[in-house]
Amino acid sequence: MPETQHSCQVIENRKVGSVYYRLAFDAPVLAGAAQPGQFVHIRVSEGLEPLFRRPFSIYRAQDGRVEIFYEPVGKGSRLLVQKKKGDLLNVLGPLGRSFTPPGKDVRQIVFIGGGIGVAPFMLFSDRIKTHQAGKILLYGGRSKAHTFAMTEFRRNGVRPLIATDDGSVGVKGRVSELFSQIEISPETMIYTCGPRPMMAAVAAFAKANSLRGEASMEEVMACGLGACLGCSIPTSRGYRTVCHDGPVFPLEELVF
Ligand SMILES: Cc1cc2nc3c(=O)[nH]c(=O)nc-3n(C[C@H](O)[C@H](O)[C@H](O)COP(=O)(O)OP(=O)(O)OC[C@H]3O[C@@H](n4cnc5c(N)ncnc54)[C@H](O)[C@@H]3O)c2cc1C
Ligand code: FES
Hints:
Layout: E1 4-16, E2 20-26, H1 28-33, E3 39-43, E4 54-57, E5 60-62, E6 65-70, H2 75-81, E7 88-95, E8 108-114, H3 119-127, E9 134-141, H4 151-155, E10 158-164, E11 171-172, E12 188-193, H5 196-208, E13 212-216, E14 232-235, E15 238-241, E16 248-250
Parallel strand pairs: 8-9, 8-12, 9-10, 10-11, 12-13
Antiparallel strand pairs: 1-2, 1-7, 2-6, 3-4, 3-7, 5-6, 13-16, 14-15
Bound molecules: flavin-adenine dinucleotide and FE2/S2 (inorganic) cluster (FES).
């Protein structure tokens, strides 16, 4: 489906835990078309400030509604916190290249997420619920406040394992402390999203062990449509735009 601009009514916008928010909006066409790893580009203000839309992964897409899971970090995302039920949101999407669904040969599916980078894996786990592979989520957060209830992942048959910088929940340290849970096998498939250093560590681990994988990259965006080249990143195939050629790339193509 070509990307489309939608005027969507907010259904709910609530705080989850002490840091993150979940915003749901009514968008039947978008919900029907969305694929895991794709994102929506949201105009967060009616005025000129901020001028550019803000990109958010599609966290859930079902029953005619789309949800995003977000952390207010700056001007744009803080404006989003103010949206209330019934407000209209101008949304462009679904945008970008999605994750490649795991083939029948895959025996272990490994999601590796850092902080808010876990967002695209909820929709992904919704969509591959019936896949026979064992599914784990290796999740890294700063502290307990930066993690969230893993119930929904468990419901989707995903076993979460957590690492926090301060050890307030799960293993103390980086998410790489959990890499020992990954089966070194050609039948393993890794999907990662999160801070750049974390994804660089995942890419190095995958390369050293000849594992297959994909990463969803983040870059500050303007047009979101591959036109301004503002979100270009270097890859082994030359510069590529995160918004249009990505955000999902094969791990081995990325240059960290
Ligand atoms: C494909 C994609 C999917 C994303 N999915 C989510 C998501 O599901 N949930 C979520 O909370 N956030 C997500 N982000 C990040 C989100 O877009 C930024 O946090 C948001 O645009 C920041 O806007 P702001 O106006 O609040 O912050 P600003 O005031 O613009 O910036 C605040 C800080 O955030 C940094 N920043 C700004 N934009 C980005 C960006 N795109 N990536 C990384 N750092 C940025 C700035 O450098 C600055 O340090 C995603 C980004 C991309 C590219
Ligand atoms: S934001 Fe314009 S090309 Fe990606």
